[in-house]
TrEMBL record:
InterPro entries: Snake_toxin-like_sf. It comes from Oryzias sinensis (Chinese medaka). This is UPAR/Ly6 domain-containing protein.
Length: 82
């Protein structure tokens, strides 16, 4: 399983997903638990809509910008649910 990952300037870096990371978001690989949690907890926060997809490179290499609050929420959620 692989997906695209973003850094400060581009979203074209490839990333090998690990363990139960079967899904991808705009920024990288996540587990199904993160995607299902995003539909309840995270979606209630401002700017908290997270789209998940399943499959190699399904998250495209499109450059996009997420607000710092959203990035922080995703990182905290990943730490809590992984």
């Amino acid at each position: 399983r692989q997906c695209f990952s973003c850094d400060a300037s581009t979203c074209s870096k490839t990333l090998a997903c690990e363990g139960k990371e079967d899904y991808s978001t705009l920024k990288g690989c996540v587990s199904e638990l993160i995607c299902s949690a995003s539909n309840s907890f995270i979606s209630q926060l401002p700017g908290g809509k997270i789209s998940c997809c399943k499959g190699n490179f399904c998250n495209s290499a499109v450059t996009a910008s997420a607000g710092p609050q959203l990035v922080a929420v995703v990182m905290i959620s990943m730490a809590l649910f992984s």
